[in-house]
Amino acid sequence: MWRDGRICYARADTVNHIIRREHGGDDSAANLQAACGPCNYGERTHAPVTATFFRPTARQMQLAEALDAAGIATGTGRRAAQPVLARTFPGQTFTRRDIDTACAWRRVRGPLTRM
């Protein structure tokens, strides 16, 4: 997990909310990321870096969730995401910005793990 510009290499054994529930975050897969206990519960000495510096629109979150449901890797970019989204949402077009933001959100959020 990214913390204060660094990566925490400890084993992820909890699930962290990117946008805390107290701040309007929910329990959707797009708002969760794997984290070690100390990072998740704020026991690390450095402050957490969250994905709140940009807030995806509902449409962009829908695209990110579709990529998650399709099992596409978190680091996937627009070129790999477009065919998956075309199959998932037939006949719909998406702006380059929507796809790029959905992919960027997934990279910042990190991979989803099911425990």
Structure commentary:
- By secondary structure, this protein is an alpha+beta fold.
- It has one domain.
- The chain contains four helices and four strands.
- The strands form two sheets. It has a two-stranded antiparallel ribbon with strand order 1-2. It has a two-stranded antiparallel sheet with strand order 3-4.
- The longest helix is centred in the last third of the chain and has 14 residues.
- It is elongated, with a radius of gyration of 15 Å.
- It starts with a strand and ends in a 6-residue tail after the last helix.
Strand content: 5-15%
Q: What pattern of helices and strands is seen along the backbone?
A: EEEEHHHH
What is the general shape? elongated
In spatial order, strands of the major sheet run 1-2
User: What's the gyration radius in Å?
Assistant: 15 Å
Total beta-strand segments: 4
> What do the pLDDT scores average to?
78
Q: Structural class, please?
A: alpha+beta
Count of individual helical segments: 4
